[in-house]
Amino acid sequence: MTKRILSLAPFVAGVTGALAAGGSPQSLVDHWREQQPAGAVAVALVGRAGPEFFFAGAQSQDDTNPPTADTFFEIGSITKGFTGLLLADQVLAGRVRPADTLAQRLTDWPERTNSPAAGVTLLQLATHHAGLPRLPANMDAAWLARYGSDPYARYDVARLYHWLADAKPEVDPDGHAAFLYSNAGFAILGHALAVAADEPYETLLRRRVLRPLGLTNTIFRLSAPQRARLAPGHHGAQAVPNWDFQVFASAGGLRSTPRDMARFVAAMAGVGENPLRHASALATSEQAPETGQATIGFGWLRTPRRPGLLIWHNGGTGGYRSFVGWYPEHHISVVVLASIDESVDKLGTDLLDTLLPAAPGQ
Fold first, then answer.
1. pLDDT confidence bin for 360, thresholds 50/70/90
2. What is d(CA 273, CA 275) in angstroms, rounded to the nearest whole number?
3. Is 360 a domain residue?
4. Whole-angstrom distance between the N-terminal and C-terminal Cα of the chain?
5. Are 31 and 342 in contact (CB under 8 A)?
């Protein structure tokens, strides 16, 4: 179970390209779906002319229709990209500073001055350089054995603070924290932003990010009509329960639709109107090293590839996988949402490469 919890799947940075990958966007989508025992996949390819959608698979055993641009999926850790954008917005608004520490910002945390983690900064959390583990120690095997079908639904602020009081950030031999992907870190970051703004994280994100970008179907808690448009998640051929979140909402709790996500990545890639363009630029700018030549912004991974810099994130919950990415210099982006827990990273980059301009001489 721990390998499937909001994991950042290994990412291959090589170019496959449209021809090497096997043809048109729809053929790539169909081929990926044919390899899966269940579930559906929805794709948005976004260029200067707007989004184009592609679908494959049945929404559920009871509904053999393919998904639509308005079908809901869990997007998992892509939520971290939204939290990173919110951090950038709050920095530009003067609400917080990247160098602010947990001791300064978690004013509702009784142990904030005594914990070994008191000096961790918002920037370190946002770039996965805080030295904190993927999951808190008190979300252990016993917790997962009891709540593994919905592991985050009962994990609240009190339990997070109980762990954080004694959490000791890991450092390298030089005394610096290396890149260590942490769901726990983004749970803390989202809560710190909420405390600084004196309003719940979900309310703050909706007010400062979702509404300005017109994302009316990007949400944490679905209404009854929205839930009717939710593609059921799958592990293998088996349908699995959906996940709910408390304090970990800022790390992986959003649900969204292909249409909303296409609007989001278009704005982030610099296509069309973006009232948060300055925050988007800050959130996706280089802030720290990741691995090799790759770097990281506020949650957003920055991977050099042959066509140029790819900015991206992926996500996964119990029955879903997702990928978003774009080439800023080409103003093209991709969204892949799947209702089965099989990686869509390679499908995402293969699809994105179909939008690249042909090389000279081809």
1. low
2. 7
3. no
4. 46
5. no
Asked, for residue 55, whether it belongs to a domain, the answer is: yes
Q: Give residue-wise pLDDT tens across range 183-203.
A: 999 999 999 999 999 999 999
Q: Do 185 and 193 form a contact (C-beta atoms < 8 A)?
A: no
H or E segment and range at residue 309: strand 308-317
Q: Cα separation of 72 and 78, whole Å?
A: 14
Evaluate whether residue 244 is within a structural domain: yes
Q: Which residue blocks in 236-344 are alpha helix, DSSP H?
A: 249-252, 258-268, 277-284
Count: domains in the chain:
1
Q: How many helices (H) and strands (E) does the chain have?
A: 14, 12
What is d(CA 362, CA 272) in angstroms, rounded to the nearest whole number? 29
Question: DSSP characters for 194-255?
Answer: HHHHTS-HHHHHIIIIITTTT-TT-BSS--HHHHTTBPPPEETTEE-PPP--STTHHHH--E
- 359 in a domain, yes or no? no
DSSP state at residue 2: G
Runs of H (alpha helix) within 42-170: 79-92, 102-105, 122-126, 141-147, 157-164
Range of the domain at 151: 2-353
- In terms of residues, how long is the chain? 362
Provide the token pair at 291.
């691995």
